[in-house]
Specification:
2 domains, 323 residues, Beta Polymerase, domain 2, 7 helices, single chain, alpha+beta, rod-shaped, two-stranded antiparallel sheet, Methane Monooxygenase Hydroxylase, Chain G, domain 1, 7-stranded mixed sheet
């Protein structure tokens, strides 16, 4: 699907489809061409627009990390947002993302993505409803899309923080293997978020500082604001990774302490049973010349000796604070 949005010099907007592709870029306005979904016509169209072959190749590379390149008067940008076309964009430690490729030049923005994107649809709906052009033209359209994309990451990071707090509350009370599995699941999720945020920092840093192309001072300030959001997200992710590492160490320490407590109890029982087994072994030997065996008090005496040894050892262990 091809969507064309034209910003007019008087501040009005015209929206349409591919029938508007033949229109020239207005001198005081802007043109936004959005290419959605797979279509063999897109690549020849980008070639006809005069974009760099390497940028066109990256546009149709499915798994490409965020990047920014400047080719003459065109800035080529790749950003990745959450893929809301799947039932669960965030599940089982995996985060499904969708790539947006954008060609930004003076008065023109061309975006391409292989599936519908929530951020692109939101910006397009905002323009369609207001029927008013953005004051910043093509630069503000790109910034609005990118800002929407980064905002969608915030609930994901906040949800991880909530899960960490819940695990921390339960961990000390009753550590279970499910807690460790949850910690590892959250670590995988944060690892994916971190891999997304790190290149985005470089992308928005470049856009915020670029003045050689179509980005003016106002556009640079807008991208700097998005860069600040990305930096905050990256810092939050790093802090949560540290918290998860601490939680994992806490879980291992609590489990080790519980194991030590169990082993201590078993050791105490073993220490008590050992001398009792010795007494039972002595009187279990098959010798005829054992005077206690012929006495009526022999059996109660053996039991009394065992009881005295057990009570004495228990008193001694408690005095040593071993139990």
């Amino acid at each position: 699907m091809i969507r064309v949005t034209q910003f007019l010099a008087d501040g009005g907007v015209q929206c349409g489809g591919e029938e508007m592709l033949t229109r020239e870029i207005p001198a005081e306005g802007a043109l936004w061409i959005d290419l959605e979904g797979p279509d063999p016509r897109y690549e020849p169209f980008l070639v006809d627009c005069g974009f760099h072959p390497l940028a066109i190749e990256d546009t149709f590379t499915l798994h490409h990390q965020p990047k920014v390149e400047e080719y003459d008067d065109t800035i080529f940008v790749i950003v990745r947002g959450l893929d809301f076309n799947v039932a669960e964009p965030v599940s089982d430690g995996d985060i499904q993302t969708l790539k947006l490729a954008a060609f930004l030049s003076k008065g023109r923005l061309v975006t391409a993505h292989r599936a519908p994107m929530k951020s692109v649809d939101a910006v397009h709906a905002r323009i369609s409803e207001t029927r008013r052009a953005f004051s910043g033209g093509a630069v503000q359209i790109l910034w609005s899309i990118c800002d929407e994309m980064m905002d969608h990451y915030v609930p994901v990071v906040d949800a991880v923080g909530t899960d960490i707090d819940a695990i921390e509350d339960d961990l000390l009370a009753d550590p279970r293997r499910e807690h460790l599995e949850r910690i590892l699941d959250l670590r995988r999720r944060l690892g994916t978020l971190r891999r997304n945020m790190l290149p985005h920092r470089q992308v928005f840093s470049h856009l915020a500082g670029s003045r050689s192309g179509p980005i003016d001072d106002t556009g640079g300030l807008n991208f700097r604001d998005t860069q600040d959001n990305v930096l905050r997200l990256a810092d939050a992710i790093e802090q949560q990774r540290d918290l998860l590492n601490n939680l994992k160490d806490t879980y291992l320490s609590v489990v080790a302490q519980r194991t030590n407590d169990i082993m201590r109890v078993l050791t105490v029982f073993s220490a008590i049973i050992l001398p009792l087994s010795l007494v039972a072994g002595i009187y279990g030997m098959n010798f005829q010349a054992m005077p206690e065996l012929a006495k009526p008090w022999g059996y109660p005496m053996a039991l009394g000796i065992m009881a005295a040894i057990a009570i004495g050892l228990l008193a001694w262990f408690r005095r040593k604070n071993w139990i």
